[in-house]
Amino acid sequence: MTKFEDHPTVQWWHQQAAGKHQPSAAVPLNADRLRELCMQAGADDVGFVEIERPAIANQQADILTAFPATKTLISVVCRMNRENIRTTLRSIANVEFHATAEHIDQVARSIVKTLEEIGIRALNPAAGFPQEMDQFPGKIWSVSHKPVAVAAGLGHMGIHRNVIHPQFGNYILLATVLMNAEVTAYTHPIDYNPCIECKLCVAACPVGAIAADGHFNFSACYTHNYREFMGGFTDWAETIAESKNANDYRKNVSASESASMWQSLSFKANYKAAYCIAACPAGEDVIAPFLSDRKAFIQDVVKPLQDKTETIYVVPGSDAETYVARRFPHKTVKLVSNGIRPQSIQGFLFGLQLLFQRNQSEGLNAIYHFTFTGSESRRATVTIQNKTVQVEAGHIGIANLSVTADSKTWLGFLSKQENLIWALLRRKIRIQGSPKLLQAFGKCFPA
Q1: With 90 as the cut, is the pLDDT of residue 316 above it?
Q2: Of the candidates 372, 371, 354, which has an alpha carbon nearest to the alpha carbon of residue 444?
Q3: Each residue of 252-274: b (16+ CB within 10 Å) or e?
């Protein structure tokens, strides 16, 4: 067996190292040259953010878990073709989303490859899917591309929660490259928001996820738009498992729905609606038709999306169910589960603000103290008042209702594997206060 130091590869390296200076990530990269490198790789715009930037402080732990050597984040923008997104034919829109997603992943990969060739370590997390599904339904991504893009000066979030680039509008996808080198100059947020607050995204959204006052209903958007992703797929799979036979399955799932799910599984998961992006006229390259003739723009772009006859997926008892029936009576409402079932108490508490239905909470003003025991010990206060929810660690204020629960039993109750009455009788769940307040609490978070 050849000794380690006599191995040809080892000897080759020593010869190379002796003959030339090794690249060092300690020397900052020239920002202009790095930008040129990224644009040559296919990016339409880029920005640079240092890992210590306060704006991304809440992401640092996840970023450094993915790539502990990270010193700089490169935020990448790639444009989409606008008319492909605006069409009412979802097949065309989805091909555009997926094609651009593949393109931006390749752009980021090309940037990483070039950086590695000059001795810079770098990594490109996925721009979209796949993600870390072992963490579902918690945070399944390593980098939140939107706040990084905002910090990098590539736009600001509109009221529809999409980044609007000052030139390209919201017809963009984002990616992030992590690298272990500093840059001579970093970019910073632009000094205005490209969102013109025209509220066309509010008018176009089929589930009322975007409110005119800026409120965003995550559950409504997630349940419908992502019907063939993640939680919606789980709900569909459980429908199959619970069906007695083929005829019973067909009562719950139409032939077109089965075919659509097959299409998503065979090719790529299809978004049911991205009407907020389609209707947005913001951005220098986009705004001219809207400002030239607003009525014509609404007639040509927004109204076809509003008038489309389609199935809208909503959680029973949700704000979306009421909204669709009132605003879009010609659309078919289908009651489904969003498939979100917390796997931990931390996940339960994290999800409360995302799943809260403010209109279902109207008239409720109460403080809830939760004490979880057993495998996951935790104390928390949930305050619901004036159609808002606030979740805080520990017990704060005077509770209107106190809930003490074995954590495993509580999670089983949420997933409908544990009977609440039986859990109360066994004292696995105990309440102090009116049971009606627990019922009112549940109404705010329909699943």
Answers
A1: yes
A2: 354
A3: ebeeebeebbeebeeebbbbbbb
* CA-based nearest residue to 447, from 416, 418, 406, 422: 416
Quick check: 60 pLDDT over 80? Answer: yes
> Which residues face 401 on adjacent strands?
368
Q: Which two tokens stand for residue 37?
A: 């490198």
**What is the predicted pLDDT for the residue at 257?**
96
Percent of the chain with pLDDT over 90: 89
**Cα(268)–Cα(20) distance, rounded to whole angstroms?**
47
pLDDT digits over 337-386, tens only? 999 889 999 999 999 999 999 999 999 999 999 999 999 999 999 999 99
CATH ID of 345-443, from 4.10.520.10, 3.30.1050.10, 3.30.70.20, 3.40.720.10: 3.30.1050.10
Residues 238, 292: Cα–Cα separation, whole Å: 50
A 10 A CB-CB count for 237 gives 12
Rounded to 5 degrees, φ, ψ at 228 are -100, 15
Cα separation, 206 vs 271, in Å, equals 13
pLDDT, tens digit, 9 for 90 and up, residues 178-187: 999 999 999 9
Which residue ranges make up each domain of the chain? 19-179, 200-335, 345-443
User: Is 3.30.2430 the CATH classification of the domain at 19-179?
Assistant: no
Burial group, residue 346, by CB count within 10 angstroms (0-12, 13-18, 19+)? middle
